[in-house]
Specification:
Length: about 425
């Protein structure tokens, strides 16, 4: 089977849900078609008795709000995350807080975004606002479920803004008890074997997306001709970007709430973890990539789900080093977590990804093609990187699902040792 045949076959089987961290260039068309199916629905007006949002302006008239230029803003103690072109109403992602029409203040109907956000801020049950682009009519929303809202990029006349309220200061925490010695699991022993075996297929994953590279051929770190790729990756020079572009906002947006630690795992376990955090059914038929992006954003977990860029293991490495440095937008502290506990992994899931029980609901991309690696393999690679670049990396094998971990980069010394291994592969 050729790489093209593999992509076509898997795309027919699982729609766009098969990409682990982002699409390769071959997958972008399939991803775009899947996303268009999700967004190609009209953006209905808020339910009666609220009046309908205004009609779209003529194509030649510019919208008052430029969707791709809006970024999270601060109003009072709260942060606002834009969902441009979205509309939410009862039965479609939200309930109306104002049941008699658009929200008003003492001066009458609210007509600006800032005033609308302030009115939401004053109501504890308010979770977001829908604002008409023409006229600025304000509709305050509660019981918000962003993934169920309507999103029409071509005909939208409204934008939605979700609120992240400031939290009171947390009481001082007691220092954690000393950790038990790191467990020597079968996977940890397998990782030690990879370090000394340059022929293991981990070292061949660094070519095209999901394609093994042969010794002596160009690796993904060679593509841009950047002689400083490795040091720039360690320093996190590419961290300030939207790692959910195409799923939530564009490259210019920063959709994560504050204090969102990074989350690594199999796609299915990431989806189930984040869905569980916000109380929704993880397997309700929602597109997997969009579900992971939106649900994990709402669950305050930073994930990689870039649907606009061309994914490779080098992009994955850049994101992971941003995560261990605490430099992902909205991340806050340099903390990462895992949707599947590293101690629970089995070596046979690496040697034969098709037997991985995590993949009961989706087919691993390329799992059966010896010339390709699978989506499941990416999580093993991430764990190996964490194990080797963190001086305390062995501690990941003590962690439970969702438990936070802070990587000790030890001045970059373990990372540079890994880089030498890559260069020799």
């Amino acid at each position: 089977m050729t790489a093209s045949d593999a992509i076509t076959a898997v795309g027919a089987a699982v729609s766009s849900g098969s990409s682990d961290r982002g699409p390769s260039k071959q997958e972008e068309t399939a991803q775009r078609e899947s996303q268009e199916q999700f967004v190609a629905q009209p953006a209905p007006s808020p339910s009666p008795p609220s009046p309908s949002p205004p009609s779209p302006s003529p194509p030649t008239a510019p919208s008052p709000i430029k969707p791709t230029q809006v970024k999270p803003t601060q109003v009072g103690p709260s942060t606002w995350v834009p969902y441009l072109n979205f509309n939410c109403w009862p039965g479609h992602g939200a309930d109306d807080l104002d049941t008699d029409g658009p929200a008003e203040d003492e001066a009458g109907p609210i007509g600006t975004l800032v005033a609308c956000q302030a009115a939401c801020e004053s109501a504890p049950e308010c979770e977001g606002v829908v604002v008409a682009r023409e006229g600025g009519q304000c509709y305050r929303k509660m019981a918000l479920r962003v993934e169920q809202c309507a999103n029409d990029y071509d005909r939208a006349t409204t934008d939605m803004y979700a609120i992240s309220r400031g939290l009171p200061p947390s009481p001082p925490k007691l220092p954690p008890p000393p950790r038990a010695p790191a467990a020597m699991t079968a996977v940890r022993a397998m990782f030690d074997g990879w370090w000394d075996d340059p022929t293991d297929r981990f070292w061949s994953m660094w070519g095209g997306a999901y394609e093994h590279r042969f010794p002596g051929t160009e690796a993904c770190w060679d593509w841009d001709g950047d002689p400083h790729f490795w040091e720039n990756t360690l320093e996190g020079t590419s961290c300030e970007r939207n790692w959910l572009a195409g799923a939530v906002g564009s490259m210019n947006d920063r959709p994560f709430y504050p204090d969102s630690p990074a989350l690594l795992g199999f796609d299915e376990s990431i989806n189930e973890f984040c869905a569980g955090q916000i109380g929704v059914d993880p397997w309700d038929g929602f597109d997997l990539n969009l579900a992971i992006a939106m649900r994990c954003r709402d669950a305050r977990r930073n994930v990689l789900r870039d649907l606009q860029g061309a994914w490779s293991m080098c992009v994955n490495l850049q994101w992971q080093l941003c995560a261990v440095n605490g430099k992902l937008p909205g991340q806050g502290l340099p903390q990462i977590s895992f949707a599947t506990a590293p101690k629970d992994l089995q070596p046979q899931w690496w040697t034969d990804p098709g037997n991985n029980p995590i993949f009961g609901k989706w087919i691993a991309f390329g799992c059966c093609d010896p010339m390709r690696f699978s989506v499941a393999d990416v999580y093993y690679a991430e764990l190996f990187v964490a194990y080797k670049v963190c001086a305390n990396g062995a501690e990941i094998f003590n962690l439970e699902v969702g438990e936070l971990f802070t990587c000790d980069l030890d001045g970059g010394r373990p990372y540079r040792a890994l880089v030498e291994k890559f260069k020799a592969s």
